[in-house]
Amino acid sequence: MSRIFLLILCLLPFQKDEPVLSWNESYKLTWADFRGLPNNQVSAAAVTASGITFGFSVRETNSVPVSFTTEVHAHFYPEKSWYKPKLADAHVLGHEQLHYDITELHARKFRKGISQFKVSSSIKNNLRSLHKTINKALAEMQNSYDAETDYSRNNTAQLKWKLYIERELEKLSEFKSLN
Q1: Inter-residue contact 111 to 175 (CB < 8 Å)
Q2: How many angstroms separate the CA atoms of 144 and 158, rounded?
Q3: What is the pLDDT of residue 88?
Q4: Structural domain boundaries of the chain?
Q5: Other CB atoms closer than 10 Å to residue 179's CB: what's the count?
Q6: Residue 178: pLDDT band by 50, 70, 90 thresholds?
Q7: Coil, strand, or helix at residue 169?
Q8: Would the pTM of this model clear 0.85, i.e. be above it?
Q9: Nearest-CA neighbor of 74 among 95, 47, 98?
């Protein structure tokens, strides 16, 4: 008897019909993509809501896994992303784009990790564990990026991060999002 086990996980909570943008190397964010209402209680000029969606299915025969498939996507959530027009400029937009690029970098790391998995009785646990590890690393990098760039105000650090993320994305180009 064959059965399929399917699980879809997401870093950020989202509504079923909520619009999302899937990361694409030929598309750069514009301020028009930031459709959420600004939070005037914080000093931030803009906020990028992005995350990794992940789903997998495992085909089993007689309760033994025989194959698995996965989907990993880096998404941008326009309705949860916002900016303050009086504070936002092209430099800030570049900072926000890099947050989204960092999400794609971790989606690539996730795909690379998955590519090294073999079908086994622990495949479901391995996939969930990798998902948790990637999300933790993603959150840590996003926080480090903001801290080291002082939320884009440190131009030298901003440029350093931009070059670093470009190099890292290139190293993992075989695992890029296909759109």
Answers
A1: yes
A2: 12
A3: 94
A4: 2-175
A5: 11
A6: confident
A7: helix
A8: yes
A9: 98
